[in-house]
Amino acid sequence: MFPRKGASGEEVLEELERKTEEDLTFDSGRILGSMCTYPHPLAVEVVRRYIDRNLGDPGLHVGSQRVEKEAVDMLSNLLGLERGYGHIVSGGTEANILAVRAFRNLADVEKPELILPESAHFSFLKASEMLGVKLVWAKLKEDYSVDVRDVESKITDRTIGIVGIAGTTGLGVVDDIPSLSDLAIEHGLPLHVDAAFGGFVIPFAKELGYDIPDFDFRLKGVKSITIDPHKMGMVPIPAGGIIFREKKYLEAISILAPYLAGGRIWQATITGTRPGASALAVWAMIKHLGFEGYKEVVREAMELSRWFAGELKKIPGVYLIREPVLNIVSFGSERLEELEERLKNRGWGISAHRGYVRIVMMPHVKREHLEEFLRDLGEIAAGLNP
Ligand SMILES: Cc1ncc(COP(=O)(O)O)c(C=O)c1O
């Protein structure tokens, strides 16, 4: 019921505290299956200070607009481009929708089709429904990366583009983006790379010596990349990123906004009014941590993943789905549903994904949390097996 009379701020906050008591929090160390994390304190402070900035009306907040551009430039740079075109958006979903929109608008074909791996994130289902683009699914190989030959066999006159994934949602697998890029060039098609998760992991992991395929704009067929600062970038939600190689993609999705207080502008994002604070927080985090800072975050997460995968193998009744590529480790079990249920009953925030449980080594996940989890998992698995 909409209250007729207001309550004091103190009362409201107390009630909220009670109502959210059951929420799991990232700093408890119990959330092991999320790609989000407790944001970095500097980013939280930036959001607090600049909470009123609206990049939907950038004529009013020209300084913030400039900062967003710089954030996009730094992300482009991380992804191998000197200058990119894009925005800080609400998340990977919006970023993927914008890429599909750009490909569709530029292709101008009837009954457009997009080819994507079976491992693609469900945001593409939303894009498909909203944009009238048919999804054509390409098979996965045994290692769970997309089968590039199957992608090729699905190209038709109606194809508007190809999607590859750098860090799949369930397993953190990186597709063979170099081959997809060659294929895209050969057929004159744009390639979109969904690096919503991997974008803030792979560049650093590669420098640390991990053997991961190239995935970014250094490959000429790659025309757009999704990269989410609100995942491994440690920026508060909402902060996604879409970067295009060329201006024409952004122009293809720009709509004239005629009435804004700051003047007429062309708007490419799905959201109109949108948080400038998010873009400022992305900028601040990149400036604060720099490449070396993020590299250390990724080093810890990758090392923890390898250790955790090794420990999982010692538990009877559960098995690794595949060796980890990034900082995601997924395991299965003959008795998965019961296992999952019992882990949840013990207060673990885990994510079940198409027949396996996914553990994501986000910055808030520490070895002691995982040791406790492994103890619980071992006990439960032993209880389930005859
Ligand atoms: C590969 C990938 N793409 C896109 C998304 C969607 O991101 P968001 O939830 O920020 O919209 C996710 C989310 O987990 C993802 O893993």
TrEMBL record:
Q: Is the Zinc-finger keyword given for this protein?
A: no
**Superkingdom of origin:** Archaea
User: Which EC number(s) does the record attach to this protein?
Assistant: 4.1.1.11
Q: Which cofactor does it need?
A: pyridoxal 5'-phosphate
What are the recorded GO MF terms, alphabetically?
A: aspartate 1-decarboxylase activity; pyridoxal phosphate binding
Identify the keywords attached in UniProt to this record, alphabetized: Decarboxylase, Lyase, Pyridoxal phosphate
Q: What class of enzyme is it?
A: lyase
Q: Which residues carry this modification: N6-(pyridoxal phosphate)lysine?
A: 231
Q: Which GO terms describe its biological process?
A: carboxylic acid metabolic process; coenzyme A biosynthetic process
**Pathway it belongs to?**
Cofactor biosynthesis; coenzyme A biosynthesis
**PROSITE patterns to which the protein is assigned, alphabetical:** DDC_GAD_HDC_YDC
Catalysis performed (reactions): L-aspartate + H(+) = beta-alanine + CO2
Which protein family is it in?
Belongs to the group II decarboxylase family. MfnA subfamily.
NCBIfam families the record matches:
tyr_de_CO2_Arch
- What HAMAP family does this protein map onto? MfnA_decarbox
**Job of this protein:** Catalyzes the decarboxylation of L-aspartate to produce beta-alanine.
From the Swiss-Prot or TrEMBL record, give the protein name. Answer: Probable L-aspartate decarboxylase
Q: Which organism is it from?
A: Thermococcus siculi
Q: Which gene encodes it?
A: mfnA
